[in-house]
Amino acid sequence: MGQTASTPKPGTQIQVIGAGLPRTGTASFSTALTILLNDPVYHGGTQLTRGPPSELKTWICILRAWLGGDKPTVLSLIKDRLDGYAAITDAPGCQLLPELLELYPDAKVICTVRDPIAWEKSMNQIHGFAHFTWLLRQQWSNLYADGRRFSSVKEVSDTLPQRAIYSKHVAWLQENVPADRLVFFDVREGWEPLCKALGKDVPTDIPFPHVNDSEGIARTAKYHIRHALIRWVAISAISGIAIIGFIRRW
């Protein structure tokens, strides 16, 4: 994740939909998109933890509507939340591809990829953040586990091995996104393949950004999890949504 939340720019529309799961280089990808598109990018992890409380409240409403099958509300809320951004990356947007494709039919879909084993290890480092509400857990189970309902984070982990989630997500993308609109991108490859996919010139004087490397995750994870959970608890008093009670660990 990045370090600061992005501010929307009036009149900016979504040009790129980032379909990669968290910890696949989404922060580096987002920074690169900001440079190439010269407009703000909505990185889900950063916006949820470093943005105003309204970010979390909106996504609570979006996920509740999504789980309840209320598509008009989902589309309306997503459109309002993303107004002023040139791209969206990271979760929970990366699991809302059909809705995003409907809202932004001309947007390019780019999925950041990573070695599944390395991804699994990285996700284990921030496991609590990835599943800190039952809403997000249930969204993932609907997509990757035939809609089974889980009562705990451990049950999710035991039933959905991280590596299996990665493979199922890629398969899910290939089923839902037209082949001519879907691009897979490894941030280790740098500017050239990304610029080719977007039809942009390769920057000659700016190195490709590498944000939130593995050695930095231990330093940032506690901040993100603790502050996000504090905000979720405050919002839950209004919304009535159950929050996983493990903030004391942090």
UniProtKB/TrEMBL annotation:
InterPro entries: P-loop_NTPase (IPR027417), Sulfotransfer_4 (IPR040632). The keyword Transmembrane helix applies. The chain crosses the membrane at residues 229-247. Pfam families: Sulfotransfer_4. The keyword Transmembrane helix applies. Keywords: Membrane, Transmembrane, Transmembrane helix. This is NAD dependent epimerase/dehydratase. It comes from Aspergillus arachidicola.
